[in-house]
Amino acid sequence: MKKSKVLVAGKLFDDLHETLLGRYDLVSNQADEVLEPATLARLMADREAAVVTPVDRVDAALLEAAPQLSIVCNIAVGYNNIDLGACTARKVVVTNTPGVLDETTADLGFALLLAAARRVVESDRWVRGGHWQAWRTTAWMGRDVHHARLGILGMGRIGQAIARRAAGFAMDVVYHNRSRLAPELEQACSARYVDKDQLLETSDFVLLCLPYTPATHHTIGIAELQCMRSDAVLVNIGRGGLIDDAALIEALRARRIAAAGLDVFENEPLLQRGFFDLDNVVLTPHIGSASLATRRAMCELALQNLHAALSGAVPPNILNPQVLGARP
User: Fold this and answer.
1) 268 is known as an active-site residue
2) For this structure, is 217 an active site residue?
């Protein structure tokens, strides 16, 4: 029986990789090398299906170089690395991995919030540098998190998980979303809906967990940063591009806001070097979902999508179901 031709563009857990070796005609990047666009196009040239990661760009040019491709399975919930419109036009099924990473990403969001508020990374560097001589009453003062107001931009599953954590700190949670939550969800999250300007003007902490789309590009820019309180902390666990990074660097440098905690950046991993000169920002390398259990669950779900699509079934997490009726 002829095996389906599959490309895995990033490293999988070894046992999951072994199962694919026996099932498909497999080309894989278990060395986890960075695949330049030309290399990715060459590897995908004769493939029917591809399992990709957020660093792998699937666009019209790549699809043109891979005429046999009919399935793309993203190991991520966000899919701004994939031109969904171009894939749909070519009747290429696209899937993602929602749900399994919500709680882990929310954990990191709260970790960044706490670290930025209490100057954890900055003081760690100071201690390691041998500067600590004595306790001082007014040294290393940060922001209280308990009983503060948390403003959440993007109240999907991850935003709701953040709100539930905030309850343990007795925080006043407000949110802004494209559409308001049902009353029972608002009650479960102990959160109130407000407009965006009110959220920015009154929140001690502003946390972004929006998807990236053309409509959400630079949700936080110069005007929004000027609306925020001078003692506010900004956290982004959504996607790079939600914040105008150059404007944020200037705001942090001028202390127009107090601090920031960032897991995602514009043009990552080539983030703007101005961040490196600032003490009032915590930087992590897009690790929101990076726990062992969660990354494994993401890989397993991506492979469930792959197996279903290649067997002719409907993948559990298809993003463009309209292509199914259009495929021969």
Assistant:
1) yes
2) no
